[in-house]
Amino acid sequence: MAEYGPRLYSCCKCRNHIALHDDIISKAFQGRNGRAFLFSHVINITVGRKEDRNLMTGLHTVADISCADCCEVLGWKYERAYEPTQKYKEGKFILEKLKIVIENW
């Protein structure tokens, strides 16, 4: 049996590797443009300016994340959650499903 390596998610625009499938925490999130995934770690991204946003689950401090190669905005990083029940999101990343493609499946 051939070894294919880890299952990856890549930028939809330039195919830069962005995240490992094993780092998905939840697939039940909502992004700006539909369904989104919550990841514990991402790679090859740049983090933008922090700003407060009122999201579906309350007020959060977030920063947009973009592909380090092509600068496509892929989602955001949760910097701070103000609601106690949302604290688990701090330091985690949202990647919008429409902005990533599957590799090595």
From TrEMBL:
UniProt keyword list: Metal-binding, Zinc
Entry-linked PROSITE patterns: YIPPEE
Domain spans labelled Yippee: 7-104
Pfam family, one: Yippee-Mis18
GO molecular function: metal ion binding
Top-rank taxon, per record: Eukaryota
Metal-binding recorded as keyword: yes
PANTHER family, A to Z: PROTEIN YIPPEE-LIKE CG15309-RELATED
Protein family per UniProt: Belongs to the yippee family.
Annotated protein name in UniProt: Protein yippee-like
Organism of this sequence: Daucus carota subsp. sativus (Carrot)
